[in-house]
Amino acid sequence: MIAAALLIVVAALIAAGCQPQQPPQADPATPPPAQAEPAKGGVVNIYTARHYGVEKAFDEFTRETGIEIRFTTGSDAILRERIKAEGRYTPADVYIAVDAGNLWLAAQDGLLSPAESEVLSANIPENLRDPENRWFGLTQRVRTIMYHPDRVAPEELSTYEALTDPKWRGRLVMRPATHVYTQSLVASLIATHGEARAEEIVRGWVANEPTLIDSDTRILETLAAGGGDVAITNHYYLGRLLNADPNFPVRLLWANQDDRGAHVNISGAGVTAHAPNRDNAIKFLEWLSGATGQRSFADSNFEYPAIPAVAPHPLVADFGPFLTDPLSLAEYGRLQAAAVALLDRAGYR
Ligand code: FE2
What we know:
This protein starts with a helix and ends with a helix. Helix 3 links the parallel strand 1 and strand 2. With 349 residues, the protein is α/β, with parallel strands linked by helices. The protein has two domains: 146 residues, Periplasmic binding protein-like II (D-Maltodextrin-Binding Protein, domain 2); 134 residues, Periplasmic binding protein-like II (D-Maltodextrin-Binding Protein, domain 2, 3-Layer(aba) Sandwich). Fe (ii) ion binds next to loops.
């Protein structure tokens, strides 16, 4: 569609220091079409670290608003470096990130500017957005306990903390300390328990000699293949695997349902500090926070809408209702450095 055709080759643009343009035409003998006119509503340029199924939501936004979307994808860190390097000449209006820790870092580095919007304030629950409105959670992902039902009964599982039980020695599969998902989970332990108790918990996991794999999909495939019995991953990876194979042999257990609830994170976005199309950027975030945007953005990756009134994808709804930790996600960023240091001290690599 239009958005895909206008996919920006940003690296080249940065090198050239110029504005987004169309990729080369397939047939050089065919005269190029008239220079791409901006859509009636203008454009919005997006740097997105989330890339699963974003095109569908972008196309719907353009259809409904007449605002054309130009986007590029990359890792969170690379996109932040790019926005920083481009400074006030950045073409980026919106930064879409996975994990609140990344959004917090972007805000700390001055890459985002507050978006005062009654629509966003009304739609997005307070704990899922920056207190200064520099970023907003758009969809929720829950990092919870996964297990192989042939080798583990759900009654044996309860909390992240209980995975320190020696009965799980040699049976856990987890994500390395270098990944922001692990760092945010440990930041939430610090916020809940304080550093000393959080360190005890992490040391307990380490004592169980977990297999560390830097991919949630591979972690779940490892459980399925018998390379471990219990894991911690984001729920949507199981959603994707079950969508591909309804008999995929891993089950999900919502963690900490008898206390604070399961660990939540977000895909979210903020308006850049030097957005050339600031009004359209805010319109885009507002649209994503509404019913159509929420459904489209959440369903494409089996995430939960940020708005409770919007139902999740049926496959995800089948995971059942659950309680989530109400901790403000800004805490993940604030405690990220402490989490990294704690993981290192505890010997979790
Ligand atoms: Fe992910």
